[in-house]
Design brief:
2 copies of one chain form a homodimer. By secondary structure, chain A is α+β, with helices and mostly antiparallel strands. Chain A is built from 9 helices and 8 strands. The first copy, chain A, binds a DNA duplex through helix 9.
DNA sequence: CTAATTTCTTGATTTTTGTCAAGAGCGAAA
DNA sequence: TTTCGCTCTTGACAAAAATCAAGAAATTAG
């Protein structure tokens, strides 16, 4: 059983790579496509594991976003404050990569704050180390671009949902794909990310349960 | 005056590059950052000029998007049809690059239709030729990524506007930056891309003019 | 230039969503 | 356990936005 946790190389060196990192490998595979197994291990070795407690911030608006984080477990809320209220942009669950992309890439002050909604396990990579991936895995720059395009497309879809759907339709679409979130994070945040008030959310929810 | 139209190199070769292409060069510079002048000419030479008549389609939903187009003059409406109505996702004006990105990159059926709202001059590049840019200009892949990130950020902002603003606020924000569109394209399309009905748009407009 | 078509405006009305306020439910902490 | 704070729900009402319908204005086609 041991080598499931600490797999051995040909010459019996222990790879300093906890077993649960395998999940990160799997997600990288699924998001970025086929990468050589050795490369994958190199990439994953650049990530470091951290835990962030409920309520704590991974990033605050105005600070630089200097790392990319992968959610191993827990929930992160990405939001920004306006004069009147906080607006939740997204909630990251297991398997999501979370970042203020613009801040990370351009070294500008971040627009988003990122807060843990429960104790959350992360694997994070610094900007510096992230750059190394491109050197080690030449293919990476292309895979990264494809990943970006997929993210872009998701945002396009989300805009389309606001141009063409009612609050109730957005609710139904969201829960068709994110059923599990409903009982695990404060509903007010989901309401906000769907572009409605908590009261409207509550009423739609009641209607859908009936 | 001639060399404004056909600028001469040191050795008096005429660069086969119509004067108005310079504008495309300028936009590439401004979007993608500093590229060597020779490279820029190479890139621009891969584009071909076309004109598309009012009402004609550059792309239809379901077809492959096999080229990237730059708007030299005119207006393009990017939209998709739902059961009830057509939803305008964006209107491209002079200086915009227009594409169904997902279709172009992944060779999937395009989600958007693109139609000319007036006779429109375009510079287009095929997917095949676009790939060559990366070979000629090694830096291109990085510049392209930065451009993508900027586009991504714009979409994030747009989502935020739907999560946090009223129709009237979106109207005002839009016209702070796109005053010129108001008298040049059917207002119903602008209404749609801002996520409101033509009637609501008309009323807000009246209110703002008063 | 005129007729036809499309687009835009306006009013009346309905529907959707937001606001305000009160109370219920629930979990965390003393 | 009991209290405190936070979240969610509910009702009454207000505001925002959509719908429907008619007509005016603008544009296009003949």
């Amino acid at each position: 059983m041991l080598n499931e946790v600490f797999p051995l190389t040909d010459d019996n060196r222990i790879i300093p790579n906890p077993q649960n990192m395998t999940e990160l490998e799997q997600y990288i595979q699924s998001y970025f496509g086929v990468v050589d197994t050795e490369d994958l291990k190199t990439i994953v070795s650049l990530f470091t594991s951290t835990t962030i407690k409920k309520g704590e911030y991974l990033l605050k608006t105005g600070k630089r976003c200097d790392k990319l984080s992968f959610v191993q477990s827990g929930f992160l809320r990405i939001f920004a404050a306006t004069e009147e209220k906080e607006v939740t942009q997204w909630i990251s669950t297991k398997g999501y990569f979370t970042i203020d992309l613009s801040s990370f890439v351009f070294d500008t002050p971040s627009r988003w704050s990122i807060q843990a909604l429960v104790d959350t396990e992360l694997y994070s990579i610094t900007k510096e180390d992230y750059k190394k991936i491109g050197d080690v895995v030449p293919k990476w720059r292309e895979l990264e671009k494809l990943f970006l395009v997929r993210c872009f497309t998701i945002l396009e879809d989300r805009i389309f949902s606001h141009l063409s759907m009612t609050a109730e339709e957005r609710y139904n679409l969201f829960f068709a794909y994110n059923r599990e979130l409903l009982n695990q994070v404060p509903l007010q945040y989901i309401a906000s990310m769907l572009g409605m008030t908590p009261e409207t959310f509550s009423r739609i929810r009641k209607k859908q349960l009936a």
